[in-house]
Hints:
This protein is an alpha/beta fold. Among the domains are: about 845-930, Phosphorylase Kinase, domain 1; about 935-1100, Transferase(Phosphotransferase), domain 1 (Orthogonal Bundle), CATH 1.10.510. The chain has 16 helices and 67 strands. The strands form seven sheets. It has a 29-stranded mixed beta sheet, with no helix packed on it. Strands 1-4-6-8-10-12-14-16-18-20-22-24-26-28 form a 14-stranded mixed beta sheet. Strands 39-41-43-45-47-49-51-53-55-57-58 form an eleven-stranded parallel beta sheet, with no helix packed on it. The protein is globular.
Amino acid sequence: METPYCRLFPFPVLFFFIHCLIGYTSATTQLSINTDHSSLLALRSQITSDPHNILTNNWTTNSSICTWIGVTCGSRHHRVTSLDISEMELEGTLPPQIGNLSFLVSLNISSNFFHGQLPIQLARLRRLQSIDFSSNNFNGDIPESCFGSLLRLQFLFLPRNSLQGNIPQDIGNLPNLRTLRLGFNNLNGTVPQSIFNMSTLEVISLTNNSLSGRLPVDMCNRGRHPLRSLFLSFNMFNGEIPSSLYQCSQLQQISFAYNNFVGNVPPGIGNITMLDTLFLGGNSLSGTIPREISYLYNLRFLGMERNSLTGLIPLAIFNMSSLQMLGLGRNTFSGSLPPEIGNLTRLTALDLNDNKFTGAIPQEIGYIYELEGLDLANNSFTHSIPSGIFNMSNIRSISLSQNLLSGNLGTTTGYNLPSLEGFYLNINNLTGPILNSITNCTSLIEVDLSYNQFNGPIPNSLGNLKLLRLFNLGTNNFTNEPSSAELSFLTSLTSCRNLEELSLNNNPLNGFLPYSIGNFSESLRYMSATGCNINGDIPNEIGNLSNLQNLFLGDNNLHGLIPTTFMGLQRLQRLYLSNNQLNGSFPNSLCALQNLGALHIGSNHITGAIPSCLGDIISLRELSLSSNQLESSIPENIWNLLYLSLLNLSSNSLNGPISPAISNLRGPVTIDLTRNVLSGTIPRSIGDLQTLIIISLANNHLVGSIPDSMSNMLSLEILDLSQNNLSGVIPRSLERLQYLVYFNVSVNGLSGEIPSEGPFGNFTDRSFMLNNDMCGAPRFNVPPCRINSVSTSRRTRRLQVIFVSLGVLVVIIVVVVVVILLRYKKKNQTPNLLDLLNPLRQRRISYFELQKATDGYNESNLIGKGGFGTVYQGVLRDGTLLAVKVFNLEVEGALKSFDAECEVLRTIRHRNLTKVINSCSNVNFKALVLEYMPKGNLEMWLYSHNFFLDITQRLNIMIDVASAIEYLHHGYSSVVIHCDLKPSNVLLDEDMVAHVSDFGVTRLLGDKDSFTHTRTLASMGYMAPDGAGEGRNRRLETAEVNEGRRWSGGELVELCGEDYKSRASALLSAVETRQLCDGCVVVQVWRSAELSGGGDGGDDL
Length: 1101
């Protein structure tokens, strides 16, 4: 009997193998744990800030990593499977060792301050299903292969970082990805189309980037699509919204707001019945709202504001009872609001502002009891405000500004508006008083009732509005309580401790400022009471308003001294006290206001000298002290106010000279020193003020001449030097001031000729009257300027000699031209003498003239584009039309092309060649100024259905082009080979005369080069880029003309290929190859006539 195998098997050996296997597994596990341990320690070492000491105190070597905060290990392998250290305010970078956590399934480090680039080693975490790096400071590009290999990945969250560059293509290949969030970064470029067709993707969020391009038209055509949320707002996507979008039938949220989408709203969106949110605002959508939108019975949020939508709002929209937000503002909707608007009972926000709605606001709007925000501003609503609006207990904001509303506010206004925070009724026709009941709106924060016809006293109970921040009652008919001489309502408003802005402009208040004005809280930043008939002194207590930045008290009846306590207003930026009755000397205390930007104290009774300390307020931009009683000289320190844009010291008694230091001002716009007793000369340095627009030095005692340097003030529009003692002549250089619209030098001692060019062509005699001895054009009502008789006779004789010489020269030239024309029987045509003598050809045109002529090289002036540059139409100031060819210096060969055109066009002259007027060249810009051809190019006339050439025109064009080529090949000292002759380079003038253009690839051949270049030009590689392809072989039909037969297809292949060399030798006796190159366009003109006739060509011809 055999011994059983089990009895013979050596059990000790079995136990040995099991023991070894267990030991190996244990050792491997220990090694793997050590790898995870070292990886996490490497992460901790990269943390530069741990404000709560979480990792510092917890991630230590004394404990197992599986017990560390944020670390989860698997029960089977005891490896790290989850790392969650989110919201710990950690700062640092991710180390490459993060890629060694090979069992990691979930990685969450969101809401921290990690920075640097994403480590490429993340690609090794093949088990990852979820990555959340939201709300950190990661930057740089998303590595191309970082996530494409994570085939188990389901959730990828990278929003709110500073990532840039393109979205990697391989993200679209992740087979299990369900949510992709990349919003609030700096990503650009187009979105990989594969992302929109991922069969598992449910959420795409790319909001707030710089992504561009069109959405794929078939983005939802790939079978059942599970997409539920699509967020693309605040990018630069363009094109139309794909009509296939409705096939993503599971969509619940669509946000395409604030992109560049155009076209209509796709009606198919109405078939996405599960849609909850639809945001399309901030685009360029046009047309009407499709009625199908009303089929979205689950829709809660609908936003289409800031588009170009028109027409009426579909009535069915107002029956969508599920709507909670409706935003259609800033479009051009029209018509009236229907009563059905009251059916939107769940609506919490209604925005219809800035449209063209008319009629009355329906009373039914008061039925929307849950409404929190109502904005109907900037329309043309009429009649009174529905009383129901004032019974909406949940409403927080009412904006009805800029309409045509009339009537009074209801007597119960305020009783049922406990939640109202913003109340805007400005710019309407509302009347009546403000009742005390408004103070029951204790939640009010902003109130704007300006620009209406409200009247009656301002209530003294406004102090109950404890949360009030803005209160604007400007431009109404409000008054003060008749029982009080002071403005008592101001005392009440001091209880509003949050008040920041108070505006009472243009109301007949007729009262005094109370001493309690100093009790306003430190929050008050803006106070304006201009034109309110306020009387009395300015209370010293006003200096307590330490945070006041703007104070406007102009156009009142204030008198007394300017309080020295103003020096306490250290944050004051603008102070307006003009048009009052203030007196006394200018207080030095104002010099302490080092943040002051505008100081206006004109039209008062201020006396004494201007304090020199004003020059220490370096922040000052506007200084107006006009119409006072100031005297002494202008302090030298004033010219230290380098950034002063407005200086008005007119109508005072200031004396002394104008300092040459006036040129210290860096950006002045207006200087008015009129009606003083200034003396001395106008400093030459005044010409350095090149930003100045208005300067008036009239009614002073200035002497000397008008500085020639004033011609440098190129921005000047108004110059008044009248009623002084100026002498000498008006500098002719002032004709350079092209923006000058007002000029007055009357009542002076000027003499000499009045300039007549430039802006002086628009001035009348009133600008120059009552001077000593002026002469000039008759329209100035001055005698003509006398000319010396001897010099006149000499000039006359000189002109006679010149005219006689020119006449003889013209006769000789005409004879030569006639002989040449007879000799060549109109085959060769000499240059047009009128063209050669055209003064425009000799004119120098600056870069700035070109820029202005082309409206800054605007796309609307674009004529065409070529390989090396762009051509624009331009109009000079005298109305001359021209063409400007701007070379793109970034293109290889453009500079060489520019040089080639300049080399050729500077010497050749022919009536059938494009004439160059000028060139403009520097290191970064090169352009040619060419004669403008209004009839376009020959290609347009040959191949467009909108243009037609008859047989005579075709023949004339053929002769013109042939004459030009004949001149280039035989009529010039060097042989000129055009090298790019084609219909698009043949331009037509007003008389349909052809002109050959574009010499950018021209060759100049000497005698020794002729044959070599001729052979080269006959090769296909030599031909113009658009002449070698299919459909352009007609350019080779010159050979047919020369051989007298039609070339077959095979022969054309030979003609265009390598085998042509043998045939070319046979043709050389009949036609040079350069004629084959340059003459082909002539035959193309004729051939196009034949083709346009459908084959025969006889009818068209």
